[in-house]
Amino acid sequence: MSRSMVSERASQCAFFGVSALLFAASAAVTRIWCASMSAMGEMPMPGGWTMSMAWMLMPGQRWPGAAASFLGMWVVMMVAMMLPSLVPMLWRYREAVGRTGETRLGRLTALVGAGYFFVWTAFGMLAFPLGVALAEVEMQVPALARAVPIAVGVVVLLAGALQFTAWKARHLACCRVAPGHGRPLPADAGTAWRHGLRLGLHCSTCCAGLTAILLVVGVMDLRVMAVVTAAITVERLAPAGEHVARAVGAVIVLAGLFLIARAVGLAWCA
């Protein structure tokens, strides 16, 4: 085996090894965070549902600290959820840049990943104040709180319908396309960062419906996280990704209809 082949094999092992360690660490921290939040309990609300403590202040905590804590855990959670589908994309980037003879593949790949998760960080910065504002209104207006179970079902239903749109298909295709379309990419930091930003924008937009489900159904629920992660990963990596996305959409639509029917039934019985 030639020296170049040995070096390439070592680079490949290092890449997948670091990716596996990063995933394991982020998944473990996410699990610990969810367990600690669950141990604090949830607030019972009018309408027979409970509000997550993620949208409320902990004892002795101020809002800047709460926002920083949420954002930190959001980033860790997104790393755990998105890394399974991101790693193949990063590997294809390494292959595209490697055709130029570039040797700083580790640094450039890290910049792509940083740009990608910067977009998800910005998404979390928008989600937190919105979630806090909605939680505040729901606690002050009992009639609105009673409508939340139906509203959750509607959000899930709309998220499922979004899976069938051309808009979803277009962004999913952008997530799946190989970097450079078979042509070498410029091997510089600016290009790597911008590539990560573009990939993050397409991915976060493509995942908007699934992320909305995560936020309204269970931002601290490991089962919901696992299901959303599986859906995102399969539609990114399966050979017929668009067909998979529609199949996922059909399941989500049925789940949304079930949630609405259950909420209406409970409201009628009450």
UniProtKB/TrEMBL annotation:
InterPro entries: PpoB2-like. The keyword Manganese does not apply. Signal peptide: none annotated. It holds the Pfam family PpoB2. Keywords: Membrane, Transmembrane, Transmembrane helix. The chain crosses the membrane at residues 65-87, 108-131, 143-162, 207-232, 244-269. This is Membrane protein.
